[in-house]
Amino acid sequence: MTAYYRPSTEDITTPYRAGRMGHLREDDAVRTGFWIVRPDETPGPVTLTLPFDRTIYVVEGAVEYAVTDGPTYRIAAGDAASFVKGSEVTFTVLEDLRQFYVDSL
């Protein structure tokens, strides 16, 4: 059995296109970690097509995900959501955000 542990005092994040990202685990099947970003670190709404299933849990802050030809979700601290591979989503960071993610590769 393999365990993945990072103490809360350890900064696992590295600069990312917007904000900071830190992978807690990354292998052939799954990638997990945190995305930490402020609204002023993003160029505004960003649209992307997910190349994997993604599940998120917002630890702090708020973000909006608009699914193309589907609903729009405001996901705030304590909320979770899951998007299937191939979904086209537009996200907007609304408040300083700390988001935990699980990508099923």
UniProtKB/TrEMBL annotation:
InterPro entries: RmlC-like_jellyroll, RmlC_Cupin_sf, UGlyAH_Cupin_dom. SUPFAM superfamilies: RmlC-like cupins (SSF51182). It comes from the Bacteria. Residues 26-101 form the (S)-ureidoglycine aminohydrolase cupin domain. This is Cupin domain-containing protein.
